[in-house]
Design a protein that fits this description.
By secondary structure, this protein is α+β, with helices and mostly antiparallel strands. The protein is about 35% helix and about 20% strand. It is built from eight helices and eleven strands. Helix 1 runs parallel beside helix 2 and helix 5 crosses helix 8.
């Protein structure tokens, strides 16, 4: 029918896919409206379609599984980053190209030795506490997020740790990571501080019980000796698997991490 044709044009309905119910199979306006209702409203125009392949596809599948299967809880602590900055300056004065992120990863590795219950995972009906400390480090690339693993991070000096982070980050950006570079993590770190993000609630990675998230280092109010001063601080957030780590254990880990990052920190 002419009215059905006009209606189909206005609703964006393809008449070739509409079954007519009128006499001799003629398509009626009711048929067009029914087809439009079944198809739903037209979606937004697509600028680009990027198929997931390789490691980004595996990462997407793992994150979807981890978010739905692991009962997450998060805690956040504020840390005075002045000692961390001073340590970086001292290393660079000695000719070492050490970044704040290198020092943060090293601190996480050492905190795993202080509170080993976080360097763990659920395996079947048992909690396994790892003897190795293998820290996965989030790396942003042009083809998605990668998380190469620093093996034995707690046993490495800061220079060796820094070099290994740079090596794996470059391999990730060039799509040269091997299976050995991405497997076997016992804890994960993520740092979007350079991107200006203050804090976040990360997703826990496969076969681990915690992901530690570092926010940007900014000058913020800080109470010291009952006086309000200004210090470079950052927020450190931990996402924990509640089947493995309870709230007190997560808090002990974050306090230990904060004390490693800031040895002047007073216990509360």
């Amino acid at each position: 029918m002419p009215k059905a044709r006009a209606l189909a044009k206005s609703l964006g309905v393809d008449l070739a896919g509409v079954q007519g119910t009128g006499r001799a199979g003629i398509i009626t306006p009711d048929d067009v409206e029914a087809a439009a209702a079944e198809a739903g409203p037209p979606g937004p125009r697509v600028r680009e379609r990027r198929p997931l392949r390789g490691y980004p596809r595996a990462m997407a599948a793992a994150m979807a599984r981890n978010w739905t299967e692991i009962p997450h809880f998060s805690q956040t602590i504020q840390v005075n980053a002045s000692p961390l900055r001073a340590l970086r300056i001292a290393h660079r004065a000695a000719g070492l190209q050490i970044s704040l992120n290198d020092l943060m990863v090293a601190a996480v590795a050492q905190a795993c030795r202080v509170v080993p219950e976080v360097n763990a995972a659920l395996s079947g009906k048992a909690v396994v506490i790892y003897d190795e400390v293998n820290v996965a480090v989030g790396v942003a690339t042009d083809h998605g997020l990668a998380a190469p693993v620093i093996r034995g991070a707690d046993q490495l000096g800061i220079d060796d740790l820094s070099q290994e982070i740079r090596r794996l980050a470059e391999a990730a950006r060039r799509r040269k990571l091997t299976f050995g570079d991405v497997g076997g993590a016992t804890i994960t770190t993520s740092n979007l501080g350079p991107g200006g993000v203050d804090f976040g609630t990360p997703i826990i990675s496969l076969n681990t019980a915690a992901t530690i998230y570092f926010g940007t280092v900014e000058r913020r109010p800080w109470v010291e000796d009952d006086r309000v001063t200004v210090r470079p601080t950052c927020y450190v957030s931990g996402a924990f698997d509640h089947r493995v780590v309870d709230g007190d254990t997560g808090a002990r880990f974050l306090r230990a991490l904060a004390s490693i990052m800031d040895p002047t920190r007073e216990e509360q």
